[in-house]
Amino acid sequence: MRKSIATVSLSGSLSEKLTAVAAAGFDGVEIFENDLIASPLTPEDVRARAADLGLAIDLYQPFRDFEAVPDEVLDQNLRRAESKFEVMERLGADTLLVCSSVSPDAVDDDGLAAEHLNLLAGRAREHGIRIAYEALAWGRHISTYDHAWRVVEAADHPALGTCLDSFHILSRASDPRGIEEIPGEKIFFLQLADAPLMAMDVLQWSRHYRCFPGQGGLDVAGLLAHTVRAGYRGPLSLEVFNDVFRQADAGRTAVDAMRSLLALEESAGLAALPETVVPSGFAFAELTAADTEPLTGMLGSLGFARTGRHRGKPVELWEQGEARVLVNTSGSDRRSGPSLAAVGLESADPDAAVRRAETLLAPVVPRRRGADDVPLDAVAAPDGTELFFCRTGRSGHPSWTDDFTPVAARTAGTADDGDRAGVTGIDHVALPQPWHHFDEAALFYRSVLGLKPDESQDLADPYGLFRSRAVAGPGGTLRIALNVAPSPEGEATRSQHIALATDDIVATARRLRGRGTAVLPIPANYYDDLGARYGLPAERLGVLRELDILYDRDGSGEFFHFYTVTVGRVFFEVVQRTGGYGGYGARNATVRLAAQHTAQLGAV
Questions:
Q1: In a domain, 243, yes or no
Q2: Euclidean distance between CA atoms 137 and 117, whole angstroms
Q3: Domain that holds residue 32
Q4: Residue 40: exposed, middle, or buried by beta-carbon count in 10 A (0-12, 13-18, 19+)?
Q5: How much is the pLDDT for 414?
Q6: DSSP string, 222-268
Q7: Lower CB density within 10 Å: C or N end of the chain?
């Protein structure tokens, strides 16, 4: 189906918005009236610019507060409408969006509303224009799509139809199944938007928190399927009011918007994309460091052994159990210290995974590859982290580990098998997101990798609220936590970390303490509260207190975890899960963040 987007969804001037929309591959655009009013371009200029970019002008919007008003107000409204029709003729737009009235002049009279809309449609038809009538969720008298359709049906004019808006319908919990009772030819336009599930005034919710389909909690795919079954064959158009999108780069936002529509068509059963290949786990985590000594010292103290060196690049392989960490000294910033730059994802079909990623507009990362290097493709996540699709040690398939020459395990700063600390693998990684890419990241991991997002959580940080949303594969075999922190400049990067799994956290903690591993100290007040909250036996609580281990539990199991101090931008977490616990110890985040800030202040 054709794809369109409202200019209100993007930042920048009207000219910049049109350029971004075309570059992202859209077929058409809705011109938001304020964007035209504020533009130095004449309507003829906008029409020519859109045509040059291959864009149709699908809709001009909005025309407000028209119907069911006293005669003197109606006369004024018709004069306004004639002015808009003239502008639309100059633009080359043939459909005008009319919102249900919120004016105090409007009266609760469906018959009068239908009479006025019939009159407006007649005037519009003289200009070759159609009227698409939409129910605003906060309309004064008409606030639901089925009510709006009854009025349109009663008006009975060929130039009058309805506009369906997924936010206005789903925010009021209206049943979208009724859409199938509307004749498809009378659905003149379809506007799509998602939103997080929030308990707040619907107007404020609409004006500030809409997002692209797949980024919120509304069933936009279900609504779309009902609309198509009704016979709608017009464009799929995005109309998103969002404070973040209005400040982000228009080109990038437009690409994110197109990705949402591609994934939405797939979810609604309207289009087939390359099959989703859900990663089954972590192949490696790659850290960059100009000065490797602090990082390799930390890895050695955690029980990792340096087991390989890349044949042609300054990259070392460190291993413990199934946990693999690459240390890369090329292209790193000495001032910021070590950082997590890439993640290897175990994939049953790396080529298919890349095909899907490219179809969903994920940028493929260019790689310098030696003649004998194993093929290994990567795409860039929204925060710039490189995601590699790997098959590690699979029989009959090349493995990325073949590019590493083995080195003796007993070298300075490493540990042999007898010195391992009990780490079995990588449990999850936590990646800090730029504040304006948080929703984009949730959609990316859901649509490109097939990971399921948890609900977003706001956690208390010493400087405000710390926002977190985790995505995970089936059974929790792959977990990624996406974080945005409101802390002072540079402090948000402290949320970048690698969580290592163990089967016996007490034994691991004791072993690491004996090796001198620098563990983040936890305040005694935390353990006093922990005892009161969960009623843990005194002996068990004492062990947790002694080893700075934090604790959480839910109806399925328990979670134990502790943290190292931060090295550069990176720290490590060691975790043990029991039963079916699937969380991340979110209630402990406040304690961890405060302890990290305290440690950071002490280091200054």
A1: yes
A2: 19
A3: 3-267
A4: exposed
A5: 47
A6: HHHHHHHHTT--S-EEE---BTTTTTS-HHHHHHHHHHHHHHHHHHT
A7: C
Q: How far is CA 521 from CA 136, 436, 494, 597, 598, in A?
A: 53, 32, 16, 11, 10
Query: Which two structure tokens, joined as six digits, stand for 526?
Result: 């935390």
Residues 191 and 324 reside in one and the same domain:
no
Is residue 491 domain-shared with residue 551, that is, in the same domain? yes
Alpha-carbon span 450 to 480, nearest angstrom: 12
Task: Tell me if 383 is assigned to some domain.
Answer: yes
The answer to whether residue 592 sits within a structural domain is yes
On whether both 298 and 173 belong to a single domain, the answer is no
Per-residue pLDDT at 290: 86
CATH of the domain at 119: 3.20.20.150
Query: Model-level pTM?
Result: 0.91
| Residue 158 DSSP class | T
Q: Which residues are annotated as a binding site for a divalent metal cation?
A: 134, 165, 191, 239
Helix axes 43-52, 71-91, angle to 10 degrees: 40
Task: Let me know if residue 274 belongs to a domain.
Answer: no
pLDDT along the chain (604 residues), means of 10: 96 97 98 97 98 98 97 96 98 98 96 98 98 96 98 98 97 96 98 86 81 93 98 97 83 96 97 96 94 91 96 94 94 69 95 96 83 85 94 80 84 54 96 86 96 85 78 94 66 72 98 94 95 93 97 96 92 96 93 87 58
Regarding whether 317 and 200 lie in a shared domain, the answer is no
Residue 281 burial (C-beta neighbours within 10 Å; 0-12, 13-18, 19+): middle
Q: Which residues contact 510 (CB under 8 A, 6 or more apart)?
A: 547
* Helices of type H across 434-522: 438-447, 505-515
Q: List Cβ neighbours of 365 (8 Å cut-off, separation of 6 or more).
A: 377, 378, 379, 380, 386
Residues contributing to the annotated binding site for Mg(2+): 428, 497, 573
Query: What pLDDT was estimated at residue 598?
Result: 86
267, 298, 320 - which closes a domain: 267
Whether the Cβ atoms of residue 138 and residue 203 lie closer than 8 Å to each other: yes
Binding residues, by number, are 134, 165, 191, 239, 428, 497, 573
Whether the Cβ atoms of residue 356 and residue 277 lie closer than 8 Å to each other? yes
Cα–Cα distances (Å) from 224 to 188, 227, 230, 239, 269, in that order, read 14, 5, 10, 14, 10
* Residue whose C-alpha is closest to residue 234's, from 569, 4, 534: 4
CATH number at residue 362: 3.10.180.10
Q: Rounded to 5 degrees, what angle do the CA atoms 189, 168, 136 make?
A: 85
Q: Are residues 421 and 335 part of one domain? A: yes
* 43: preceding bond cis by omega (within 30 degrees): no
Is the CB of residue 587 less than 8 Å from the CB of residue 533? Answer: no
- Contact (Cβ atoms closer than 8 angstroms) between residue 190 and residue 210: no
Quote the CA–CA distance of 347 and 563 in Å, as a whole number. 29
